[in-house]
């Protein structure tokens, strides 16, 4: 594909994504992101805006306990309406208890969290990275690991 054509395709899909976010907002009522207070968690190295691929809050049990608590509430405010209370899906979105546990599932988790899921211009899941931030993402991931099922 030429550069110009691929640019046009990109622009078109961004426009479509915008349109379906707008219709999503109307269909589902209030979808305002619920801010997450992550000040109790260590900053991410090398920086909170540099996205990493492995959960930095898992290794230290004390940090993991704080992260899981923050993650549980962040999940309730931002994910449960689609993925279900307590991470038990009612069927409209995947059941996150079955994500691969630990490092094996980290990269997939954080990439979906950061970018959401858009296919053919339709928003299946809104991007969360810019609105909630990376620290909240890893906190949610830490809590989800406690809910994991095979
Ligand atoms: C508006 C509904 C909606 C919200 C809100 C939402 N998701 Fe999703 N999520 C989905 C859908 C639908 C999919 C499946 C996407 C696909 O099929 O491409 C998905 C997929 C995922 C996946 C990949 C699951 C898998 O098995 O491959 C992860 C991880 C995920 N979401 C995490 C989250 C987290 C964490 C939050 C909250 C911060 C969240 N989602 C909020 C609808 C949502």
TrEMBL record:
Cytochrome c domain residues are 66-148
**What InterPro entries is this protein classified in?**
c550_proteobact (IPR030991), Cyt_c-like_dom (IPR009056), Cyt_c-like_dom_sf (IPR036909)
Arranged from A to Z, the UniProt key words for this protein are:
Heme, Iron, Metal-binding, Signal
According to the UniProt entry, the coiled-coil residues are: none
This chain belongs to the protein called: Cytochrome c-550 PedF
Q: Per the record, a Pfam family? A: Cytochrome_CBB3
- Please list which residues make up the signal peptide: 1-22
Q: What NCBIfam families would the database entry show?
A: c550_PedF (TIGR04494)
